[in-house]
């Protein structure tokens, strides 16, 4: 099915253009906010050629496409007018009031997951690219091809570090969009956190606080931080909207942003950002303590049940902790490591299905989704094959749990944020040049894939054809 035709059918079966209030995409899924979820025919959409499955998650109707999602989204955006700013604004103005009236009240956990997912999805290309560059730079250093004092190293380090160092700016834009407030005001808030005066004082460590109208402002280095900017932009959005409601239209452009910044930035520097910084630091310390003191249990449970975490979208809630670990310790010993192992387990299971099956379509889907899983994208394998045929899914869970526990006990660490697949291997090269961490990563990948592959063949599988349901 052509991308245009598929996009048209998905929109039609989702209740039509008028039922869609928002459409975005992540690595493998189209994500729709619908005015009326009951109008979406999830079964019919799931049976379309080119669709792996559907899910309702965190207030969104999600259509799992796989690696072709970007091309399908382009057609969806064309049809909905999301590529045309005038059409987009007109559509948003038309549906805004009705969407708010029909929007279901989410519980607090769903709301938090939705905020974190919306914050990180748009910036993934930047932090994944930077994480990959960190791994490549480590390899160049270990191999002796680049000296740490050379200009080449300095430039490559800038490439690898910029996205993480200035992460508050990236998050400011995506969070501002999530809360429907001007992105550039969000960037100004990030600029306040990253202002050279604040950073220089924090690095010097000689001044703990400064005073603003007798209110102490703690001096904190907010580079690479996550929670401070997220909380700050959320606060700013409420302040902006509260002010804007009472300011006459003739002076909105001048008065609203001025008062917003005047109120927001002192509050952020005095209270919100330090609270966010403490939250992030203690979460990172807590997770690190858990994997140091109860690693075998944490690795076993997280490795076995990670597929369910991915299915429910809760893995996005762990993104800030992973970034915070990388910022605080220089490595990530928890979920990023486990995710690599469980992805290899899904790959092993789906390749076993393809190997065993005599059905040409299932073989083709198994091989293509297996390759995606090896590269770090497991939704096609998990939703398209393993979960539907059950036993391969169980095999992947068992393998993920066993090997997950093993690599945590052995102290495997990731030194960069990259999609957890074979392409992430450079991020497991230790900056100190020791080969131990890289060897553990290789052995973990081989073990997880092999155990899952063998278990899938051993458990057997009656289904030999693609089952869309």
Automatic annotation (TrEMBL):
GO terms for cellular component: plasma membrane. Its main location: membrane. SUPFAM superfamilies: Glucose permease domain IIB. GO terms for molecular function: kinase activity; protein-N(PI)-phosphohistidine-sugar phosphotransferase activity; protein-phosphocysteine-trehalose phosphotransferase system transporter activity. Residues 4-86 form the PTS EIIB type-1 domain. GO terms for biological process: phosphoenolpyruvate-dependent sugar phosphotransferase system; trehalose transport. It is a multi-pass membrane protein. The chain crosses the membrane at residues 123-146, 152-172, 184-202, 222-241, 253-276, 296-323, 335-355, 367-387, 394-418, 438-459. The active site is at residue 26. It holds the Pfam family PTS_EIIC. It is found in: Cell membrane. Keywords: Cell membrane, Kinase, Membrane, Phosphotransferase system, Sugar transport, Transferase, Transmembrane, Transmembrane helix, Transport. Residues 114-469 form the PTS EIIC type-1 domain. This is PTS system, beta-glucosides-specific IIC component.
